[in-house]
Design a protein that fits this description.
254 residues; 18% strand
Length: 254
């Protein structure tokens, strides 16, 4: 059984039910649905509640949306986070590549959401792009919080620093891309007990599905590629990833 560790089910063209059925046909049976925007927090939670325990979720504001953060949004996230459906705060972090929100606002909102995770005793799903140093500096301030660096495309330094702080590394379909040599080399050297795989659907469809809308079912291609890269069987990898997910997300239900 595979777990799609990071997927945006509410952004898919297909219904959640259709996406689940397609994924189950290739042995992908659990999904972590991600909230990112003020307008999708409640929708992500409601979809998750409808399909629990097949779907569980994380709720937070993506760095692109940091400029929209309010106390009302925080109150909503805190309220939903008390339920069994919500396993982490996220997707939160920093994105200095696009800068859709001002850098200082991103930094403030990232720290605010990290504090919320600390208050609630929840792990986090972290987005970081062109902000490795700043991301690590903030993570260091919250020693009790652990989680996952999602859709990892960073340097070996980032991977090492994150793991030293207790974070795991989640690998998306980008690892299958022909020019992803540096990422493949990094992933090859990661400890098997510190990794996850994800689709980040509807984004970043893996080879051989590039150019299409990504869906959770396409995780099977990333799983096969990573198993080969790590020189383990797919069944061994699947079992280890289940253990990794339940360890880093204590509220996650197999």
């Amino acid at each position: 059984m595979w777990i799609d560790n990071h997927t945006h089910i509410n952004m898919l063209k297909a219904s959640a039910a259709e996406a689940i059925e397609a994924a189950k046909s290739v042995n992908i049976e659990r999904f972590i649905n991600i909230g990112t925007h003020p307008d999708d927090i409640e929708a992500v939670y409601n979809t998750t509640k409808k399909f629990f325990p097949l779907i569980q979720c994380t709720l937070g504001l993506h760095p692109h949306e940091a400029k929209h953060y309010t106390k009302d949004i925080e109150k909503m996230i805190r309220t939903f986070a008390e339920s069994k459906e919500v396993i982490a705060i996220g997707e939160i972090g920093l994105d200095f590549y696009y800068n859709h929100s001002d850098k200082n606002i991103q930094l403030d909102v990232f720290e605010t959401q990290m504090q919320m995770a600390a208050d609630l005793g929840l792990p986090v799903e972290i987005h970081t792009r062109d902000a490795e140093k700043e991301t690590i500096e903030i993570l260091k301030k919250f020693e009790t919080v652990k989680g996952v660096i999602h859709c990892f495309t960073g340097t070996p330094w980032l991977a090492d620093e994150a793991m030293r702080l207790g974070y795991n590394i989640s690998i998306s379909g980008i690892v299958t891309f022909p020019k992803a040599n540096d990422l493949q080399a990094t992933v090859k050297n990661l400890p098997l007990d510190r990794i996850h795989i994800e689709t980040d659907a509807p984004f970043l469809a893996p080879v051989p599905m590039r150019g299409r809308e990504n869906i959770p079912a396409y995780l099977a291609h990333t799983a096969k590629f990573v198993a080969t890269l790590k020189d383990v069987s797919e069944s061994e990898l699947a079992l280890q990833l289940q253990k990794n997910t339940t360890k880093i997300f204590p509220k996650f239900k197999l």
